[in-house]
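Quick one - inputs below.
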Amino acid sequence: MNERLKTRLGRLELANPVTVASGTFSYDYADYVDFNRLGAIVTKTITKEARGGNPTPRLFETEAGLLNSIGLQNPGLDKFIKEELPKYNQWKAPLLVSLSGSSIEEFCEIVARMDEEDCAGYEINVSCPNVKNEGIAFGVDPKVVFELTSKLRKHTERELIIKLSPNVTDIVSVAKAAKEGGADSLALINTLLGMAIDWKTGKSRIARGVGGYSGIAIKPVALSNVWRVAKAVDIPILAMGGISNYQDALEFFYAGASVVAVGTENFMNPLATIELIEKLDMHLESQNISLKDIIGKVKGVIL
Amino acid sequence: MYKKCLITAFEELKADYFVLMIEDSALAQVSEPGQFFNLSCSDGDIPRLKKPISIYDVDGSEIAFMIKKVGKGTEYLSKLKVGDSIDVLGPLGNPFPLVSGKSVLMVSGGVGYPPLVYLKKKLEDCEVISIHGGRSYDDIFLCDYPFTEDGSYGRKGLVTAHLEKIIKKHKIEVIYTCGPDSMMKAIGRKALELNIDCYLSLEEYMACGIGACYGCAVKVKADNEQGYIYKRVCKDGPVFEVKELWMEDK
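Output:
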């Protein structure tokens, strides 16, 4: 690629600013997408023990987005390392492993174990709305986020990203706590809480009632959160939330994101990431600017 | 494969059913009975998720889909014309295992009919008996034993009503089924009882269609505390043998 698209995510220099949102992408996409062209790869969230996932139905496409309640179904850390990690490491794009735990000790244990393996860094999922007593339980309290981040920091020199939830009173205070704890960068936003009911039968569309809401509908919410966090905290932001195309991505760069992740749109268009990279490059070239020139440079805001 | 394909034929069947044909020799060559394609059903409007549609027929370089208009996505597909193009992702999933020289029963309900038509074409040296059921005459297609819930055509009642009698009469050795979940489960239970091989083609709400998101989960028996694990209909299915499924009603 070229200089125009280069960006920095904490300790990592990325060839371009486009990656994927955890849970929406896996090596299964290799039949369609050239992974070497991605700025980075983010895995589905891994937990220490295997997780069976939530009851079905787990999905419903609603008016302007998608509800999901997968429940972090994954094979567990050991099986991930043995069977999935080698598949991801065949590509040169930096690999960011998303992980979650049921205690601070367990988060640390996973990071320590992963640090013996090959990967570029970790996205700490403290914001999944679809599991009990994990994820979100950690991400809502700045004190807990600080403690978790500072303990994780002792276990790794690799990129440490804390993924934040929008389902909190004040995302900025959680972001600050993560930074104080030693996070290299922040990922936001995880899904919003959402629900849908079949009005004819009265039946919930999602077996667990409430699910995580993603897609086009949440883009303005994500954008405002990114902007508020970017103003308050001076570490890079990996942004996600309804990003479908290069125009969406540009909005997030102006708001302060250094990297963007495509999530739900992968389902609509498996080539969404690659098309975004190509069109973003063409746009920057036509304007004779680099990505660095626009990150955080939103105009027209009167404070 | 993810491709834009040309629509080469469009045929209205009765009521809300229609057949859509696309042309692509590379896709046609690798499309097997029981597999499906994720068809794009949108110009950007909701719904934007692709719809999984099973393969109805492959003829030379053409692939046919028989579709029922049930919602906005299939409504969009029903308005396509010859000469239009459509984004298709597939073929996806695992095909039906093919048997030969056997006495085979195919049981379908409603829009579960199409994949069994293509399967029948691919079975060699088999005696195939088919049962098909639907709500009314509008849902009935060519078969040996038609059933309607309202009695407007064939026998009145559910396809499962005379199942055992038909199995015994034709000395059925293998059953293939596709249709509503409750219908397939009832057939699966009968197959277990009579110790007959039975393959079900399942349906679940899907997002990616290729195994990444784990949205389209189904319970499959496992040697663990609960007795089951969740597998993916899109990647591990959609075809499952009845003996591997955790049989509970939805």
